[in-house]
Amino acid sequence: MKINAQKVVLFSTSGYAEKHDALLNLLIDEKILLFCAAGKDCELWHDIMDELFVGFGEERDFFMMTTWHTDESLEDVIGFAKSYDIEGIDNEKVEIIQV
Fold first, then answer.
1. How do residues 56-99 score in pLDDT, each as one tens digit?
2. pLDDT at 41 over 80
3. Distance (Å, whole) CA 6 – CA 51
4. Within a domain: residue 44?
5. Alpha-carbon torsion 44, 26, 52, 21, what sign?
6. In angstroms, how far is CA 33 from the centroid of its own chain?
7. By the 8 A CB rule, do 65 and 35 touch?
8. Spatial contact of 24 and 51, defined as CB atoms under 8 Å apart
9. What is the DSSP code (8-state) at residue 9?
10. Chain-wide mean pLDDT for the chain?
11. N or C: which end of the chain has fewer CB within 10 A?
């Protein structure tokens, strides 16, 4: 899977499972800058992403902002992601991943 934006909205209908760590690690490898979790287990998705990003104290050459959006529609979360300003990128470009 190739990620085509530096902002990602993950919308979960199935909930988090450890098998999803591969997807989260891929997002880290792609150096996304904004990760927004919505849907089932969105706070857990957020927490796991934070844990994977920090790892065992690994130094990263970029910063990732992570958020979770309980009881918000996919459209609202996409709107939030587009409005979150990150200098030097196309702020309107948001990748939506449904799990």
1. 677 888 999 999 999 999 999 999 999 999 999 999 999 999 99
2. yes
3. 19
4. yes
5. positive
6. 8
7. yes
8. no
9. E
10. 95
11. N
Q: How far apart are CA 19 and CA 6, in angstroms?
A: 23
Residues 6+ apart with CB under 8 A from 19: none
In a domain, 2, yes or no: no
In a domain, 81, yes or no: yes
Q: Which residue has the tokens 């287990």?
A: 41
Domain hosting residue 20, numbered range: 7-98
38 is a domain residue: yes
- The pair of three-digit structure tokens given for residue 80, joined into one six-digit string: 């939030």
What does the pLDDT read at residue 93? 97
Strand 7-12 versus strand 34-39 pairing type: parallel
H helix intervals, 1-99: 21-29, 42-54, 74-83
Residues 6 or more apart whose CB falls under 8 angstroms from that of 25 comprise 52
